Amino acid sequence: MGADALRIEHIGSTAVSGLAAKDVIDIQISVADLDACSARALQSAGFRPAPEITCDHAPPGPTASANDWRKMCFVEAAGERRANVHVRRAGSANERYALLCRDYLRVHPLVATAYAELKRRLSASLADVDAYADVKDPAVDLIYLAAEQWASAASWTLAPGPVPAHLSAFWGRFVESTGRAGEDRFYEAFFFSDREDVANELAELVLRGVKRATAASVWSHDEEGKPLPRPGDLSIVTDWAGKALCVIETESVEVVPFCKVTAEFAAFEGEGDGCSRSGATPIASTSLASVPGPTASSARACSSSASASRSSIDHELTTEAA
């Protein structure tokens, strides 16, 4: 679907390790506008439209408008492994429903076990596929309603998108050589600053181990709908041209008013004279941990509050090596 595909996610039961499931892969493609996106690429690849499926079941309680449950649906090409491709609007209620239920089941194995048993019993007693879905939907709603409470308590948000295609080889070598993590821990690929000279200078400070923290406004994250980094998140630092330089790991994140930024953090940030300056804007701070291997650090800010972060280089590879 080209540029129309904002994110592509594996959803449904087969996306939850150990959960009993039919041998059908469910894929969700998020697009900016259902009416404006083109599905010709999917059809050219052999995926067959299911025009009779135009919306999802909506759970009980206060819900979004009917438009928030619309979707397009496609099934596998003839002769290929069974698959359902759900095209949904990014930010819609049904996009959230699918991802939230998946993530909730991934971290609540007992709920997943109970859900699997329910599906086995329904499959054994209901031969009609439509009847199976009609009975299963309210059960999934129970999971969804519990998942919403969990999401609020755990500050769950949609994870950032996948590793950019032009950095996938670099990321693959990082995962292979360190055995650390796949895309579930990837946060972002980025360069510092909006100026080429500064971006390259700060990247060099990261590689030298001088810059081990950073800060940004919380407002900017809220405005973009982007979650703050979390401890354990991995990010690729690039130069201005987008060349991958290293992988850093977030060690800690703290949201504080700018005037409360400490001299210690300013020193970790490693820029200028290493001193903080007073101000009124709140900031979020993040700290990144060092790991075995070449170590350096970087930090980043987040938010209408600002954010600060400390980091360490998890792995260093050149683009050529990757």
Q: What report would you give on this structure?
A:
There is one protein chain. Mean pLDDT is 79; it is low at 278-307 and 316-322. Helix content is 31%, strand content 22%. Strand 8 (234-238) and strand 9 form a beta hairpin. The strands form two sheets. Strands 6, 7, 8, 9, 10 and 11 form a six-stranded mixed sheet that branches. The two termini are 28 Å apart. Helix 2 crosses helix 4 and helix 3 (109-125) packs antiparallel against helix 4 (129-154). The radius of gyration is 22 Å and the shape is elongated. The longest helix is centred in the middle third of the chain and has 26 residues, at 129-154. The protein is of the alpha+beta class. The protein has two domains: 2-154, Beta Polymerase, domain 2, CATH 3.30.460; 165-316, Sulfate adenylyltransferase (Roll). The protein is built from eight helices and eleven strands.
SSE order and pairing:
Elements: E1 7-11, E2 25-31, H1 40-44, E3 48-49, E4 72-75, E5 83-89, H2 93-107, H3 109-125, H4 129-154, H5 168-178, E6 186-190, H6 196-207, E7 213-217, H7 218-224, E8 234-238, E9 244-257, H8 263-269, E10 282-288, E11 306-316
Parallel strand pairs: 2-5, 6-8, 10-11
Antiparallel strand pairs: 1-2, 3-4, 4-5, 7-10, 7-11, 8-9, 9-10, 9-11
